[in-house]
Amino acid sequence: MAVAELTAEAPKPAALLNPFRVRGTALPPNVLLAAKVVTLVFLITGGWRLTDPFVPFIGFLGDLASSGAYQHTLQAIWLIAAASLLLNQLVRPSCLVLGGTLLLAQLSSTPYRTNNLTFTALLLLIIGLSDRNTAKMLIRAQLVVLYFWAGTNKLLDGNWRSGAFFESWVGIHAYGPAYKHLADLLPSMVLSTVASWAVIVTELFISVTFAIRRLVPVGILLVIAYHSSLFLVTGTTFTMFWFSVTAAAVALVEWPEVPPTVKYSETGPFARVVGLLHRVDFGHALAWEQTGGSELELESGERRFTGREALARVMLYHPTLYMVFYALAAIQEPARRWAAAVALAVAAYAAVVLVRSRVNPRSQVHA
User: Fold this and answer.
1) Contact 20, 86 (CB under 8 A)
2) Are 166 and 121 in a shared domain?
3) Are residues 297 and 306 in contact, defined by beta-carbon separation less than 8 angstroms?
4) The domain containing residue 30 runs over which residues?
5) Would you list the DSSP string of 327-358?
6) How many domains does the chain have?
7) What CA–CA distance (Å, rounded) separates 148 from 206?
8) Contact 29, 283 (CB under 8 A)
9) For 203, how many CA atoms within 13 A lie in the half-sphere containing its CB?
10) In the structure, what pLDDT confidence band is assigned to residue 332 with cuts at 50, 70 and 90?
11) What does the pLDDT read at residue 223?
């Protein structure tokens, strides 16, 4: 087994230049994938333009060079690091540069700094500072701090506890009239107060799930469901936040050390879908075998899945699907609520599998 793992994790240098490949580097496959999709979204949405200095948090940052030269230098550094990461070269230093450059841009401009960009910068920095043994622990710690602080901040705010903030916030969005119509069916402020406390409790509970290892799968599903629900209702990703926080959740899913083996035939019930997944496995993340049987199988170590469960795990371990999904979701038009709906559907299915695995001890889900 050790020899097989070493072989699987040591591809030829030319193969590593494949941007869809996530194995064979200093980072776990799905942690590298998380960094790649965040970087890809940042490229597509134009975030790589960063900013020029304006009322910097650290004064001398505004005096290093002219505004144009400073911004263009940051852009060049960021783009070089992005290319290096996507081509699997120096992946940890690349993440450090990507996160550091984004953090420096925020320190250079007070209006540019936002919570979602800060989270994205810190996520990339944490990935760059981690290795195969520490990556998930550090990302979990970041999520514990994020949700504990967010929930506690709301809990200590009287306007959040009373529902006043939620009432005002909802009123400025396009769905405000529909919310008001529903709220008018109840006594004044009841719906806003209930919604406010639901947010507070959810965020505090999410922080607990990431602090306790055995609850991490629950935390992953809650993060995806919670933020995708907000995305679906509001129609906004809150700039980079939805992309970055769901990518962090993906980084915490347990992936096999070596490529799982997929056995399928040309006549099985999932033959067309699996055949397509095989053709678009550009990163060679799975080992594909055509067999004479009609049943779809996926083997990962000592675990074996068949039928619909095998198909679900083929998609779970398929980096190309993630990169295409995030790239399409990053495009502004047409309206992209569809991405939130897809994420919610995936979370719902995973929740069913998770519950079933707890009921049936022979089938366990690890994350």
Assistant:
1) no
2) no
3) yes
4) 18-133
5) HHHHS-SS--HHHHHHHHHHHHHHHHHHHHHH
6) 3
7) 8
8) no
9) 17
10) confident
11) 98
In tens, the pLDDT along 199-245 reads 999 999 999 999 999 999 999 999 999 999 999 988 889 999 999 99
Answer yes or no: is 157 within a domain: yes
Nearest Cα residue to 313 out of 345, 284, 338, 350: 350
Q: Which of 234, 247, 255 is nearest to 316 (CA)?
A: 255
> Exposed, middle or buried by CB within 10 Å (0-12, 13-18, 19+), for 156?
exposed
Q: How far apart are CA 278 and CA 193, in angstroms?
A: 49
Domain contains 266: yes
Domain membership flag for residue 325: no
| Token digits of residue 309 | 């469960």
> 20, exposed or middle or buried, with CB in 10 Å at 0-12, 13-18, 19+?
buried
Q: Are residues 190 and 303 in the same domain?
A: no
**Is it the case that residue 77 has pLDDT exceeding 80?**
yes
- Say how far apart CA 41 and CA 216 lie, in whole Å: 25
* Domain closes at, from 133, 151, 171: 133
Which amino acid would we find at residue 280? V
- Residue 143 in contact with residue 212, Cβ under 8 Å? no
Query: What distance in Å separates the CA atoms of residue 209 and residue 220, rounded to the nearest whole number?
Result: 9
How many other CB atoms are found less than 10 A from the CB of residue 59?
9
Query: Does the residue 3 lie in any domain?
Result: no
Radius of gyration of the chain (CA): 22
Both tokens of 282, joined, read 């550009």
Q: Which two tokens stand for residue 105?
A: 């841009």
Give the N- to C-terminal CA distance of the chain in Å, as an integer: 22
Q: Which residue has the higher pLDDT, 17 or 143?
A: 143
User: Over the range 236-264, which residues count as b (16 or more CB within 10 Å of their CB) and which as e?
Assistant: ebbebbbbbbbbbbbbbbebbbbbbebbb
Calpha distance 18→87 (Å, rounded): 6
Model confidence pLDDT, tens digit, residues 236-295: 899 999 999 999 999 999 999 899 999 998 887 888 999 999 999 999 999 999 987 778
Q: Is 210 exposed, middle or buried (0-12, 13-18, 19+ CB in 10 A)?
A: buried
Tokens 């067999």 belong to 291
Q: Higher pLDDT residue, 71 or 361? A: 71
